[in-house]
Design goal:
Number of domains: 2
CATH superfamily of the largest domain: Formyl transferase, N-terminal domain
Radius of gyration: 19 Å
Strand order of the largest sheet: 7-6-5-8-9-10-11
Largest sheet: 7 strands, mixed
CATH architecture of the largest domain: 3-Layer(aba) Sandwich
Structural class: alpha/beta
Number of helices: 6
Order of helices and strands: EEEEEHEHEHEHEHEEHEE
Number of strands: 13
CATH class of the largest domain: Alpha Beta
Shape: globular
């Protein structure tokens, strides 16, 4: 069953108008004037927006799911106008699946295949199909330990977000908090960003700083960064769900 009327906004040189409360690109002659879109406007893709329908989130995770819990709790408290439609994991007994079942959220374990750091072709298609069947508007990575490539990124272009435990673009990749501590920075933190084909290289949505103490170890710094993630990630997801951000090249602008 289709979920209400869909409005499709495409970046183009023609003038577009709408009777809904969603702003679309408004043109004057040959010069387009970008306005704020529901979800994200990226010049390379079309964004489909469902009118008068709940904003649906799909979550991917491989571990305990503490960021998932922070987002689910924010939804339950009315801080994020959305619902979690499905939770998927590449780890059969991952804690995130147990947390989801406790909240009566649909879950699915998808065997990742033969590779250690990415999904094989069959697994990738299983993830894509499950998310499409759940009709998700946004995909949230919450400790998902597989690199997403190819068909997955094309299927959800501009609609995948991740959180990384450093102030990107500094210290991408594994153990960003440890990289920061070893480098000797005085301020660390976390970053929510869109996912692209690079490693932690997508456009930055939000960041939160965490001071580095003289007596910090990798473990103590990581714990404080993790706490900051639980504050930042729900705020960023809420802003996307409310249509409060737009993209201009690599810049993500908040209302």
């Amino acid at each position: 069953m289709r979920r209400g009327k869909r409005v499709v906004a495409r970046a183009s040189r023609s003038c577009v108008s709408t009777g809904t409360n969603i702003a679309v690109q408004k043109c004057t002659g040959e010069t387009p004037v970008p306005l704020t879109f529901q979800l994200v406007l990226a010049a390379r893709s079309a964004i489909q927006v469902t009118v008068n329908s709940p904003f649906r989130i799909g979550v991917l995770g491989s571990g305990q799911g503490s960021n998932f819990v922070a987002i689910a709790d924010a939804i339950a408290d009315g801080k994020i106008p959305a619902e979690i439609a499905i939770v998927l994991s590449d780890v059969e007994h991952a804690g995130i699946l147990a947390h989801s079942r406790e909240r009566k959220i649909p879950v699915q374990f998808v065997p990742p295949g033969k590779f250690r750091t990415k999904l094989d072709e069959e697994a990738e298609q299983s993830f894509v199909t499950a998310l499409q069947n759940a009709r998700v508007d946004l995909i949230v990575l919450a400790g998902f330990m597989r690199v997403l490539k190819g068909d997955f990124l094309r299927a959800f272009d501009g609609r995948i977000v991740n959180i990384h435990p450093s102030l990107l673009p500094s210290f991408p990749g594994l153990e960003g908090w440890k990289q920061a501590l070893d480098y000797g920075v005085k301020v660390a933190g976390c970053t929510v960003h869109f996912v692209d084909a690079g490693v932690d290289s997508g456009a930055i949505i939000g960041q939160q700083t965490v001071p580095v103490r003289d007596d910090d170890t990798a473990e103590t710094l990581h714990a404080r960064i993790h706490a900051a993630e639980h504050e930042l990630y729900p705020k960023c997801v809420a802003a996307i769900a409310r249509g409060e951000i737009s993209t201009h090249g690599r810049r993500v602008v908040w209302k």
